[in-house]
Amino acid sequence: IRRPPRSTLSSSSAASDVYKRQVINNHNENFTREVKELSLDHFKDGEVLVKIDYSDLNWKDAMILKDGGKLVKEYPRIPGIDFSGTVAQGDGEEFKEGDRVILTGCRAGELFDGGYSQYAKVKKDHITKTPEGMTNKQAMILGTAGLTGLLCAFAVKAREELLMQSKVNDVLVTGSTGGVGMVAVMVLAKMGINVTAITGKPDKADYLKELGAKNVIDRKEFEGEARLIDKGTWDGVVDTVGGNILSNAIAQTKPKGIVAICGNASGNKLNTSVIPFILRAVKLWGVDSVNISKKRKEFVWGEFPALLDFNILEKSVNTIGLDELLNVYPDILKGNLKNKIVVDVNK
Predict the structure, then answer these.
(1) Most CB contacts within 10 A, which of 37, 91, 108, 170?
(2) CA distance 270 to 146
(3) pLDDT of residue 2
(4) CA–CA separation, 108 vs 115, rounded Å?
(5) What element of type H or E holds 237?
């Protein structure tokens, strides 16, 4: 491949055209993880070379770092499902040197190398331009989780905007201290909706209210077996956890309400009945931020600046370097992670 001009490379790597990457490998089910220096000649695919500034840590990233998560098919692999950075070498058409760009999803870190690296070469269809007014770090404070949170909020608003039903007034957000939940709380509150946040971290109640939640409920109230149908309380639900919490939320959803689901932290199984869907016409709306069209991604990213206050979101962020990832990723799998992790790949 043609290498980028040396002027596009950092001073530390220009002399040898090498860069740092977090690499995982698998030899007969023995997994290794280490930061390596590789040559730019390593790149085989893609049209756009990006100098990466930031990535982040998601649940999927942690599974891949642990043992590939049954998602990685070929090794060695560079994990990291998200990144933000600046184009070092464009495609000659859509992207040019100096453009700031974002990549989320697209099976990065699984089927091809991802964002835990100082450089990446990717297909132009996998990246979008960073919105004006948003920094590269802010883009990774959001990442896949933030994109999913906004898609969930839009799904709930579809009750009034697409289905022409009554106004959305009261919305329940589960897993509200996670990356998806925090963005959903803030966005829905900015839309003028009364948000009730469910959390298992009572020490985060004040922060959730700062994000915009009107009420905060202990997760334990939703962990028991759900009734077939319960008192209608919510015009909509954003669920990030699944399990009994989702079952109870469905039973409590008002007629013609929308339940947007995007996660399974509390379990894959859903113990419910047809009753809420028949008697109340409740709609279960699955949200996937990986396989949406590029045009849709560009639209959603463009909506963020008007709906978020990064000064508040940044209070829940911990920034680490590539070398620190291996000490941090187990915490997200154990449910012990209290802050959003942003990865400064040049730290």
Answers:
(1) 108
(2) 24
(3) 39
(4) 8
(5) strand 234-239
Residue with tokens 């939703």: 222
Cα dihedral sign for 255, 258, 261, 266?
negative
Give dist(CA 292, CA 308) in Å, integer: 22
CB atoms under 10 Å from CB of 342, counted, come to 23
C-alpha distances (whole Å) from 29 to each of 14, 45, 116, 277 are 36, 27, 22, 44
Decide: 251 and 273 in contact? Cβ < 8 Å: no
Report how far residue 17's alpha carbon sits from residue 37's, in angstroms, rounded to the nearest whole number.
10
Return d(Cα 34, Cα 51) in angstroms, integer: 20
Residue with tokens 């998200």: 82
- Cα-flanking dihedrals φ and ψ of residue 40, to 5°? -65, -20
Strand partners, 248: none
- DSSP 3-state of 332: helix
* β-bridge partners, 35: 22
pLDDT in tens, 175-211: 999 999 999 999 999 999 999 999 999 999 999 999 9
Angstrom distance (rounded) from CA 230 to CA 232: 6
